[in-house]
Amino acid sequence: RVFLRAINQYADMLNKKFLDQANFELQLWNNYFHLAVAFLTQESLQLENFSSAKRAKILNKYGDMRRQIGFEIRDMWYNLGQHKIKFIPEMVGPILEMTLIPETELRKATIPIFFDMMQCEFHYTRSFQRFENEIITKLDHEVEGGRGDEQYKVLFDKILLEHCRKHKYLAKSGETFVKLVVRLMERLLDYRTIMHDENKENRMSCTVNVL
């Protein structure tokens, strides 16, 4: 809780002193996002790994601090305005790590950041190729590391499709991208499940699907 309060004070200072065009500090903002995501993903806050009694005790005393800091990260991202492009594609990985935390409200609040990144890159380059390449690479790594689940795949699909379909220029390419990533996620989750299967043919078939 002490760390959370400190990070929030750091965030206030960034917004007040280091956000406008003349004083913008890329390294400080970068440090903030990496620090906040490291806080959110630390072992001691992953409540689903605790017994129900311990989880209830923590929630009762402190609430879910991952949700608190996650909402703060989301607000800080949107505060960046025209500076966002400076964080693409480098921030895709940390944001992905945050959205993969198995907390539904946190996921719903933060998955839309991906659409914002697509939109932002598209505004400058008329494509979102760098974002797309980065999320595919990082997703592979994260799912292999044990993160991600069926619920995440469904939310990712639903939220991003809704956003893309409302956008004049991203409707078609956005939908193609979302379908591609969801299909990849399916294959990666299957592959992870089957990795311990004794049947070599099953493992080989999953590997071929991923490829």
From TrEMBL:
Any Gene Ontology CC annotation: plasma membrane
Any idea which GO molecular function terms this record carries? guanyl-nucleotide exchange factor activity; small GTPase binding
Q: Which InterPro entries match?
A: DOCK, TPR_DOCK
Annotated Pfam families: TPR_DOCK (PF23554)
Dedicator of cytokinesis TPR repeats region domain location:
1-159
Q: One biological process GO term for this chain?
A: cell migration
Q: What is this protein called?
A: DOCK1 protein
Organism the protein comes from: Irena cyanogastra (Philippine fairy-bluebird)
